[in-house]
Specification:
homodimer; alpha/beta; Quinone Oxidoreductase, Chain A, domain 1; Rossmann fold; seven-stranded mixed sheet; 15 strands
Chain lengths: ~350, ~350
């Protein structure tokens, strides 16, 4: 094919206003923009798989995050791209690479090694056979892995582990590692529908609870009563759920703060995410520790190896929903993510 | 003296109502109540020194705490008492003991060894020479010690440590251990008046900040700029201050949640203590860990020994305010504590 000189891309139109009811697709505008010419170290790639992550909602918020997208800027995303042209020895036409991409039909990188996160990773021949699986594991799986094992310091001697959004991308992996690898006797998953309750039980949850049930708080109390509380809570939501769990933590219990989904709609600064029960943290010597998976980047190769091994042993199966779309439908991926109806990891596949 | 058959005591009249402006003395009523006769293992004691601790405000609140006092019950307190009569070999008339006492003129314990915390501790001859110093160190000093060293895992390689209510009982000890023992290069103390700023500088703070200053947040930003943030924040207040600090924590910074003074007035459940900046905890991998000093009870003898040694080496001086009163003025101690005007440890001495 001829090297394209321009590309379509989805730019952020405006920060979401938490006070308004807008569809995710309203935040973005499709624009055509020139592509720079290829320099002596450049590569030209075409994103083919985009990761849809809850954290992306914070990137486009006005409150700021570790990655930010401002109005007029192209939307960023982790993903897998195919190399179309390369002036760099390390990459050749047809290679698949993983890294920080954008909602752009084509992209030129002048120095791929200088990209965040530390350079593009070239998929091995084995990994390139199933790039969907690779992408699902690459960020989400590692988030579950380091969150549970390093931040949470979960061990087989824990009695009760609770996971919120257990049918979600990260939660589903946490449940499986907790049950199938660590053999935690009581893995409790929180989710929002009877179908998802069945699903998380099939993943290994001993008890599935529906947070929409009017008896949820009592159900939780009963579920943790036999062990007199929770050793470890893997928190994917923040907000009111975190407060509810704080009432049930064991003395010296550990909380992994991984997501604050419950607070994403409130990023105007009026009401972000509340931990009301600070007093209980003090009384019980509870620990809340945030998880930023990039802090563990030096160990990623090891983490990926362990998870691939668990996959082979049948201890870890991936739960992926693939949204196939032409480039013009890319914002629909975020729409689906925020609607909260999918299970496991959501990927957008550009066809 | 003849063995008394009744005693005066201060009972809680009602839980404080955060919506009302009441004096601490309004919460208590002086009543006369019979004393049980001494059994074969009983001791009769007379409390002589009462510890005035911020945490006692939570004990009398309606929200509950690790220790609770309900209306109609006698007010509890840590303190030092003198043994008046003893049927127990381990205690003899005139001994001084430390333990959980009450605002009661006399008290009979049927089995002193069964008391919380684990039995009364008899002061050594050396300790009995200065019971005020012993009481000041016993709980408050140990709180500072285990909070900074065990929960906070402070080491000499930390660059910046921030301490709130640095002129308070716990804060003053934290500042001195951080500066004089660990030699932290930048110890920043937060307090509320120019006099207290001078005081905490004399204790070892490199920088003293007044939280009442209109430029406080900017002053803090400037104070932590040279080290690009805070390694460890020793939090004695909770509330809004905790949120302000979360914006300044280094990646993987540690917060010791020791007190929630800022939230004590809100224990009706409407507004307890807020951590709004949950998102920052996640982004920066920050850890918040509660401190309940009783979790370290097995190590107290060692902690006391270290602090006594630091005292002899001039690294740790105690900062004690003694409120002398007859028994009828005991609630005035809490009044003084909540007014926040004293510095260091406040003790009530019954004369």
């Amino acid at each position: 094919m001829a090297i394209p000189t321009e590309t379509q891309q989805w730019q952020l139109h405006h920060h979401p206003d938490p006070k308004k009811t807008e569809r995710a697709t309203d935040f973005f505008t499709l624009v055509k923009t020139p592509l720079p010419a290829l320099g002596p170290n450049s590569i030209l790639v075409k994103p083919i798989l985009l990761s849809n992550d809850a954290s992306q909602r914070t990137w486009i918020g006005s409150a700021g995050s570790y990655i930010t997208v401002k109005p007029g800027q192209v939307m960023k995303t982790f993903g897998v791209a195919k190399v179309i042209e390369s002036n760099k020895d390390a990459f050749k036409k047809g290679d698949l690479v993983w890294g920080m991409l954008a909602w752009s039909e084509y992209m030129v990188f002048d120095d791929p090694a200088a990209q965040y996160p530390p350079g593009f990773t070239k998929l091995t021949e084995e990994q390139a056979k199933d790039p969907e699986e690779y992408l699902a594991t690459r960020i989400t799986g590692l988030t579950a892995y380091y969150g549970l094992l390093n931040v949470g310091e979960a061990t087989s001697s824990d009695q009760t582990v609770v996971v919120s959004t257990a049918a979600g991308a990260t939660g589903a992996v946490v449940v499986q590692i907790a049950k199938n690898v660590l053999k935690i006797p009581r893995v409790i998953g929180i989710t929002g529908s009877p179908e998802k309750m069945d699903l998380i039980k099939s993943l290994g949850c001993d008890i599935a609870l529906n947070y929409k049930s009017p008896t949820f708080e009592d159900d939780l109390a009963a579920a943790v009563a036999p062990t007199k509380g929770i050793d470890l809570y893997f928190d994917n939501v923040g907000g009111a759920m975190l407060d509810i769990m704080l009432k049930r933590m064991k003395s010296k219990g550990r909380i992994v703060a991984c997501g604050a989904l419950g607070s994403y709609e409130n990023d105007n600064g009026d009401a972000v995410a509340y931990v009301k029960e600070l007093r209980r943290i003090i009384m019980s010597g509870v620990r809340i520790q945030g998880l930023n998976v990039s802090h563990y980047a030096a160990d990623y190769a090891n983490g990926m190896k362990n998870m691939e091994q668990w996959g082979k042993e049948g201890k870890l199966r991936s739960l992926t929903t693939i949204y196939e779309t032409s480039f013009s439908g890319v914002p629909g991926g975020m729409e689906r993510l925020l609607a909260g109806k999918n299970t496991g990891k959501l990927l957008t596949k550009i066809v």
